[in-house]
Automatic annotation (TrEMBL):
GO terms for molecular function: protein folding chaperone; unfolded protein binding. SUPFAM superfamilies: Hsp33 domain, HSP33 redox switch-like. Signal peptide: none annotated. Disulfide bonds join 235-237, 267-270. This is 33 kDa chaperonin. NCBIfam families: PRK00114.1. Redox regulated molecular chaperone. Protects both thermally unfolding and oxidatively damaged proteins from irreversible aggregation. Plays an important role in the bacterial defense system toward oxidative stress. The gene is hslO. Gene3D superfamilies: Hsp33 domain (3.55.30.10), HSP33 redox switch-like (3.90.1280.10).
Length: 295
């Protein structure tokens, strides 16, 4: 596992195609969150999906994907912008038996619930799209979301292979988005190419790069590689942001913290801990200081 994680953007005939490898960043999340194999697969797929969707937007704009299913993993969330991503699983320790020899991501996420995709444009307010879960397998649900909520026929394929020792062997995926007005003949060729591709994990395990995957998707068609960007894990948390969050806590909750020798706040995205003494808490400007506890 030596090659860096990268995302490639390309055109294949009358379609936009994006492909990404996320092995290193998924392994990093695996380590900092202490993920079980099924949790690692769920978060790795979601993170790759977030990077792929964010690649369709302008620099500085981002995408957040939240899976809220009825499975034991609870919420699975990834947040991507500028070719970086962060994420978490609500219950990262959950273990499930294999299903037909594979990790049961659908069983972990759940077959009922919603996927929420938040797009954050450079200007204006973020906007949410929703779709009911189809399988909990992540890629299938994102494909359904794009069709149901954004009226965009697409193909999303994602995969994470977890080794027997719990480490990430390979992780990545691709996203195919035909342009409006594409001919039926082109769409049929594109669909056939996608349907005959091996699983993402098989492609990556056998040494295929994101560019290789794109050229397989575009077999028999004009392929133009537009650009290639390194991708990585990055968390934007900071002591200042945590302090700002503490400033807005209800008075009763805030006051109870003053009785402790120090207050620890842990970022659920990266695990970083921030410590505040009672004196530091008292120095924060309080947004709710004048509110009655009953309110």
């Amino acid at each position: 596992m030596t090659q860096e994680d990268v995302l490639i953007r390309a055109t294949v005939g009358d379609a936009r195609v994006y492909a990404v490898t996320t092995t290193h960043l998924t392994q990093y999340m695996n380590e900092i969150h202490g993920l079980s194999p099924v949790a690692a697969a769920a978060l790795g797929r979601t993170a790759a999906g977030a990077l792929l969707l964010a690649a369709t937007m302008k620099d500085g704009e981002g995408v957040t994907i939240r899976f809220k299913g009825n499975g034991p993993l609870g919420e699975v969330m990834a947040d991507a912008t500028n070719y970086t991503v962060r994420g978490f699983v609500e219950h990262p320790e959950v273990m499930l038996p294999l299903k037909k020899g594979k990790l049961d991501v659908g069983g972990g996420v759940g077959h009922e619930g919603v996927v929420i995709v938040t797009r954050c444009p450079e200007k204006g307010m973020p906007f949410n799209g929703y779709a009911l879960l189809k399988s909990g397998e992540i890629a299938e649900d994102l494909t359904k979301y794009l069709y149901d909520s954004e009226q965009t026929p697409s193909v999303v394929a994602l995969g994470v292979l977890v080794d027997k020792d719990g480490s990430i062997a390979v992780s990545g995926g691709y996203f195919v988005q035909p342009l409006p007005g594409a001919s039926d003949e082109f769409l049929e060729t594109l669909e056939n190419n996608c349907m005959t591709l091996p699983y993402v994990t098989e492609l990556l395990r056998s040494g295929h790069s994101p560019e290789d995957m794109i050229r397989l998707i575009g077999k028999g068609m004009a392929v133009e590689i537009l650009d290639c960007h390194p991708v990585s894990f990055h968390c934007s948390c900071s002591r200042e942001k945590v302090a700002h969050m503490l400033e807005g806590l209800p008075e009763a909750e805030f006051s109870s913290m003053l009785d402790d020798p120090q207050t620890e706040v842990r970022c659920h995205y990266c695990g970083k801990k921030y410590l505040f003494t009672p004196e530091e808490l008292k120095a924060l400007p309080r947004k709710h200081a004048k509110l009655d506890d009953a309110n």
